[in-house]
Amino acid sequence: MHTLKIGTVETMTVLRKIETGYVLEKDGEQALLHHNEAKEELEENEQVTVFLYNDKKGNIAATTTLPTIRMDSYDWAEVVEVSPRLGGVFVQIGIAKEMLVSKDDLPLYESVWPKVGDKLFVTLGLDQKGRLLAIPATEGIIYREIELAPEDLLNSQVTGHVYHTSREGTAIITKENYRGFIHHFERKSEPRLGELVTARVIEVKHDGTLNLSLRPLKQHGMMEDADLILEHLQVNNGIIPFSDKSEPEDIRGTFEISKAAFKRALGKLMKEGKIEQRDGKTYLK
């Protein structure tokens, strides 16, 4: 029965020193501690605390660097390589070996995969071959880790990393450890998993989580939305089949904004004399 488990911290005994490092032993099992993974010279029979992992050959290796990310222990890890060919992205957990986050634990679309420099909230686990993987936290784990947000955050800005994203919306953990959710109609595009975003608090919920928006305040958003409508008119020969009477779902499906925002932008453009509405359509003057 194997008592040494990779991804964990163990206290082992120095059995002997060899050319490449030290052979460590515990309960009859051995691990190799390379010289560059030891913080100081060690002596035979000395006790040393190490983190265990697989080396490139699949053997159990040790390091005296003790990462905060271990089996059943979660923390943020920075993405250092993105490789669909190798099956996912690699993150740095604080030791020489970089850990793979499998594509099975990443979004379906590579366009919202993390980029180098993004951060993922992960733990360590094993694949079917017994190799270490970095595994993103589940929603249940997130709720166990977060803090309750105070009510006075309303209308303030928060910054955090995306830990889940989908067509429905984007979830982040802020730097203060609050959970925030950005509904799909409160964003113009879908942020990447692991991306650092800054959002505006539009609701502090009773459970201490936040509803957030990536959209600007109304007065600023009106200008952006008006430009968007003009752009659509210009590429469609000066006419679009929308007006302030159009259905909200149709407006959102084309412009990705609410009907209220659409009407505000139309009003601005009509006041400026740039457009007119007739027969349920909008025309460029």
TrEMBL record:
<dbReference type="Pfam" id="PF13509">
    <property type="entry name" value="S1_2"/>
</dbReference>
<comment type="similarity">
    <text>Belongs to the CvfB family.</text>
</comment>
<dbReference type="GO" id="GO:0003676">
    <property type="term" value="F:nucleic acid binding"/>
</dbReference>
<dbReference type="InterPro" id="IPR048588">
    <property type="entry name" value="CvfB_S1_2nd"/>
</dbReference>
<dbReference type="Pfam" id="PF21191">
    <property type="entry name" value="CvfB_1st"/>
</dbReference>
<dbReference type="InterPro" id="IPR003029">
    <property type="entry name" value="S1_domain"/>
</dbReference>
<feature type="domain" description="S1 motif">
    <location>
        <begin position="155"/>
        <end position="215"/>
    </location>
</feature>
<dbReference type="Pfam" id="PF17783">
    <property type="entry name" value="WHD_CvfB"/>
</dbReference>
<dbReference type="InterPro" id="IPR036388">
    <property type="entry name" value="WH-like_DNA-bd_sf"/>
</dbReference>
<dbReference type="InterPro" id="IPR014464">
    <property type="entry name" value="CvfB_fam"/>
</dbReference>
<dbReference type="InterPro" id="IPR040764">
    <property type="entry name" value="CvfB_WH"/>
</dbReference>
<protein>
    <recommendedName>
        <fullName>S1 motif domain-containing protein</fullName>
    </recommendedName>
</protein>
<dbReference type="Pfam" id="PF21543">
    <property type="entry name" value="CvfB_2nd"/>
</dbReference>
<dbReference type="InterPro" id="IPR039566">
    <property type="entry name" value="CvfB_S1_st"/>
</dbReference>
<dbReference type="InterPro" id="IPR012340">
    <property type="entry name" value="NA-bd_OB-fold"/>
</dbReference>
<dbReference type="InterPro" id="IPR048587">
    <property type="entry name" value="CvfB_S1_3rd"/>
</dbReference>
